[in-house]
Design a protein that fits this description.
It is a single chain. The termini are close together. The radius of gyration is 22 Å and the shape is globular. Strands 2, 3, 4, 5, 14, 15, 16 and 17 form an 8-stranded antiparallel sheet that branches. The protein has helices at 49-70, 115-128, 156-161, 184-190, 207-221, 225-234, 278-281, 287-299, 312-318, 381-385, 388-397, 412-415, 437-441; strands at residues 3-5, 39-41, 74-81, 84-95, 100-101, 109-110, 174-175, 259-263, 266-270, 274-275, 284-285, 303-304, 307-308, 337-341, 344-353, 357-364, 369-375, 421-423, 447-450, 457-459, 466-472, 475-478. The protein folds into 2 domains: 15-401, 3-Layer(aba) Sandwich (Beta-lactamase); 412-478, no CATH class. With 480 residues, the protein is an alpha+beta fold.
Length: 480
Amino acid sequence: MCLFTLVAGALIGGLALFSATGSRGEKPRGKGAPDSANTERSPTNGVGDAQAQEVEVFFDELILRQLEERHIPGAMVAVVSDGKLLFAKGYGWADVEEQVPVAAERTLFHIGSNTKLLTWTAVMQLVEEGKLDLDADVNSYLDFSIPDTFPQPITLRHLMAHTAGFENRDIGMLAPSPETVVPIGRWLATQMPARVRQPGVEAGYSNYGTALAGYIIERVSGMTYERYIEQRLLGPLDMRRSTPRRQLPPDLAPDTARGYVLKKGNFREQSLPTYQVASAGSIRATATDIAHFMTAAHLQDGRYREGLILRPETTRQMHETLFKPDTRLNGIAYGFFEMDRNGVRISGHIGSAVPLYYSVLALLPDERTGLFVAYNDSEALPLTFENETLAAFVDRFFPAPAAASLVPPPGFTSRADQFTGEYQANTLGGSYTTVEKVRRIMGEGNRRITNPGDGTLEVSMLGGDKHFVQVAPDFFREAA
């Protein structure tokens, strides 16, 4: 079970693990309703067929059911184990109208904020080369100044742990087209969010913080962010069908999955605006390319073929804890969010190109296993942000030993009301100084906690309400 505590910022990045599935009603009408006939599978690269087949059977049942019940056109999955691609497969449609199936080794999905994991990997490469210092004031790398609102300077460690203390601002993050993108240095200087918290004290998810890191990469490497990622990561990792470019290369554009929303029972294609900030969420990639990144950069001590992406000690460092909101909880590593399920340690991230693409990248370092899954419809939100797919995978292949059911402490029902109400997670950000603060004031993204009268607390989640049992003062575990 994952841990939950009534501490502001506990639900860091929406990455607490909660298992939930459910139907969304009837299958969408007309063209594009996915079925088992249009799936494409990649080879398993010599990994034992029996193990690969077991994983395939599991995902065939899970993903096809998700596409049917959640009304999602397509998905793709990659699983790596012991340094090899164990399984990769596409499901459903990349293009509903043209009936183009998803292929794990060919179809590009927008991976959203999973882009940040490549950004942080690039930062650590430059740390290894002595070009960056994780504890230096980031102003020393910039050609503009972040105000000294607090005595403590902001460092790259703060940026990687999302503890720099910036308010969250969404306005200005998107551009109408690649041609209208503002140069990143000018954008950062003119769109700077207010510093509302002391660095290192609380976590608050920050796209702006990752944008700063991307610009710092440019400043110290002498290359644009896109060029650096291509030359130092995508090329060496043989991620030939991935790109950070806002304007898709001609050879990749035809194979990019369309994004959809469900309207009146039908899939409606929508165009995604251009990301102003490349380093925070611009990459499009195939499942098999992401498998290379998971395996080489983070599960094989930075080794890929004859080269090193990172030194082994740097790879291990990236999965060490940088920040915890409470010592009893999972925290944030070097750009990765810490999770656990069934006693298995997990480092991962969620990607969203709202509202069309959702993905999860999860590493199980002690098991030398990695999972990547992506969807191309807004209805996939609970599958990723509530980690339903990841939870199902871990439960199937890394099950927990039988444990006694949690029992509410005596008299808790009479005390439960002291915890009820609406809670706002710092991780969902929120502005304090601009018109966007209306969203925070109106409670957008809040979690409601109620007292169901059975000795538990009921917490509203995207995939349905969950029940939690108190196991220590102000500390709760999800009920089985």
